[in-house]
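pasting DUF4126 family protein for the record, 174 residues
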Amino acid sequence: MIIALYRNIKIATMDLKAERPIFQALGIGVLAGMRSASAPAITGYILSHHQSKKFAKSRLGFLQSNAVANGLKYMALAEFIGDKLPSAPNRIKPVVLAARCLSGALAGAGILKASGGNAVLGAILGGSAAFASTFGSFFLRKVTVKASGIIDPVIGAIEDALVVGAGVGLAKFV
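structre below
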């Protein structure tokens, strides 16, 4: 996932110059609704490869750290595996939903702030998109499993592939 992201990132300068940061914040929020750890992992990866001294001084500057980006990457990989386990909680349970919204808010705030935008707006966009995506992806997955007869973990793996592909697509806007 990370190697694919790296190959598709256009590095023009060391500062993040997103062409469509609002679209990215919304997209990152959608990914958070599907896989909560993927949004901060993708955001951390992008920002750690587009270091900005100005952004580093902000409260979200920790997202630029290579150590943080690596830690987030491993969390996302663990979530990809954990989601397939029968003990995985439903994403629409209040605590899990809150975590997904916070994940989307953090990632959206980081993307918008690093692009020179308003972090609060990024948090609202990312968190709202995560909220909607959580319910949308939950019910879509349930309907798909029932209609197709394919076991849930396989549909979950397809969802993982969609998340990775969408992450690569969002990174292209950098």
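The mean pLDDT is 85.
The two ends are 17 Å apart (CA to CA).
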